[in-house]
Amino acid sequence: MRILKIAFINLGLFLFFCGALEGIFTLWQRNQPSVTETFSWREAYYLAFNFEEFLQRYEDQMESNRLIPQKNSNPKTRVFFLGCSLTYGNGVEPSEAMPALFSHHTKTTEVLNMGLPGFGPNENAQLMKNITIEEKVFKKNIAIYSFFSDHINRATLGWSHLWWSHPATVNHYVEEDGVLKGGDFLPRENYPLFLLNLLVKTSETIRFFANRSRTEAPMTKFPKKKVLFTMKVIKRIEENFKARFPDGEFFLFLLDPSLEKNIIKPIADDLGIKILNPDHYFSTNHILPDNHFNPQGNQEFALAIINSLKKKGISFD
User: Fold this and answer.
1) CB 166: neighbour CB atoms within 10 A?
2) 72: burial class by Cβ within 10 Å (0-12, 13-18, 19+)?
3) Measured between alpha carbons, how far is 25 from 148 in angstroms, rounded to an integer?
4) Mean pLDDT by 10 residues, the chain (317 residues)
5) What is the pTM of this model?
6) What are the sequence ranges of the domains in the chain?
7) 132: left (phi over 0), alpha (psi -120 to 50) or beta
8) What CATH architecture does domain 40-311 belong to?
9) Rounded-to-integer distance, Cα 282 and Cα 304, Å
């Protein structure tokens, strides 16, 4: 009985300490800008018990037509751009995002910007599998997934992904006997992990330390096992794409100079993934304060992809 009493007292002191710490950081950060969407405790409580409604809202967004307006009335090639906020074009006008600029520089393409903020390989695999795509006939369909090192955190559900991403968007894969399984949204497949995501997105204490400790880990810092798992999920994106477009071509475009080709390329080769730029990974100094590309950076991004495609014998004249 005495041990139980001591345990309850210690638990009470721990919860009091956590509450006090949360209160201090809430007051401290009240006027501080947030680099990611956060929730109030009331919102988190609502989401915890009404996630299906929240999820439906997100799935409706997935179904939206993200086709970029085309001047070309007779496109021969359709290009799908997959990725995260760098592909989506956070911080710039839609016409200044990379896919729109790619469309501007190519004469015979129809382009879809399927990048979404916070997305990683897992979410893109589900997006390519489930999104409604207008039925049209093209001579060629091409999908390009733009990848940088933090996508490894996203594929393996690292802390940075739980902090950056929206709780309704996170997908979860596991590997059993070398086979990927799962891929559903967290609230449907792993509710405790969904609740953890909400906690990460709600706590001002976590936000305080995350803001000060967040760094993009170089590729060499990731265990090879995590890199391999991530590449297997990217292979799943390709498989979902090829299931819809059997004659389509899928490419991986590398954005990060820390991506060591002696780590990525052998794994990609073993899995049969084509790297669009295996010898010159893309980087630019033209970035916004939040590390997204500014219009000039997106211009360089689009031209780098066009030039890499030309080296593969693919042009759009």
Assistant:
1) 18
2) middle
3) 32
4) 66 63 57 57 71 60 55 82 92 90 90 88 89 84 93 84 71 83 73 77 69 52 86 96 95 78 84 89 88 94 95 87
5) 0.81
6) 1-30, 40-311
7) beta
8) 3-Layer(aba) Sandwich (3.40)
9) 7
